[in-house]
Amino acid sequence: MDSLSQFALGAAVGVAVMRRRAHVWKSALWGGVCGTLPDLDSLIDHGDPIRNMTFHRAESHSLFYLTLISPALAWLISLRDRGLFRRWWLATFLVLFTHPLLDVMTIYGTQLFQPFVDTPYGIGSVFIIDPLFTIPLIAGLIATGVSRGVRRHRWTNIGLGIAVAYLGWSITAQALATRAAEHSLAAQGIEFERLLVTATAFNTLLWRIVAMQPSGAVYHEGFYSLLDQPGTIRFDRFESDRSLFDSLRGNWGLERMAWFSHGFFRVVQRDNQATIADLRMGQEPAYVFEFAIAEGSPNPGWREINYRAVGDRGDIDALLSWLGPRIAGSGFPPPRTRSDDINRVE
Questions:
Q1: Please, are residues 225 and 327 in contact by the beta-carbon 8 Å criterion?
Q2: What is the DSSP string of 68-85?
Q3: What does the pLDDT average to over 314-327?
Q4: What is the pLDDT of residues 246-277, one digit of tens each?
Q5: Contact, 289 vs 312, CB < 8 A?
């Protein structure tokens, strides 16, 4: 999730655990700081954009390593009051532990079980920024801060409860969208090997669906709102250059992206440049994480290059203008907001 959400979650957990044992501002501040620590790994330059992407949310988000570091942080925080060490230890442990658990609700990929397993996990039931998760946390903290009396901490607990309930709702909504997608794909005779159903920006009512065919050369994209009228979901068909993928085997960036995206990737050739895009983040034809990985041609061959980020967020204004009506069930087709949309198959 975004840094504000992680800070708010850490602050809320800190206040909920420490309660009257520490000032609200101190519990919130230290909780928020600890809640953002794992994301400092984004400041590390691993040498190229593909490494920077796929090594993010790795060791710094490991439940094992975060458990090990929690007593050291608690010791630093409780230097002036050793009697609170155990309570701060519990608070820092829960703050650090909940950070990657929240991240795994997004689709990016979080390597929870480093150093034992490097699999990047991502549920995709919430977008990376979702006000309906963050606002209850902030509201609860503010209410606790301005209230007086022994029961004022209940407002933080209420905010946490609402935020957690919203995450539970997101999983339920995702399951409903997945079932609708499976029925619609079957009704249209579209075969698929992998199915991706993820929340669109800032909400859990409109869902983006990507169905990868077994060959990996064709994928379909569609959108489903829980407010849609009953009917078949419209899917657009797109291609990924499978022969290009085969000719690039052995390219570290290609293999790494194919692994990190769990097979949801697109490979295309633009002029003398081969690119690979993670289909999980973005929508056709613009993807945030797209990288140039080779130059040349199939004949005489491809030359691996220093990887370059060539991702595109598309026309944000057009996407936002489409998002509201589409959530409401308008059925409007999505804007295709890039001029070099070369892989669309009509």
A1: yes
A2: HHHHHHHHHHTTT-GGGH
A3: 94
A4: 999 999 999 999 999 999 999 999 889 999 99
A5: no
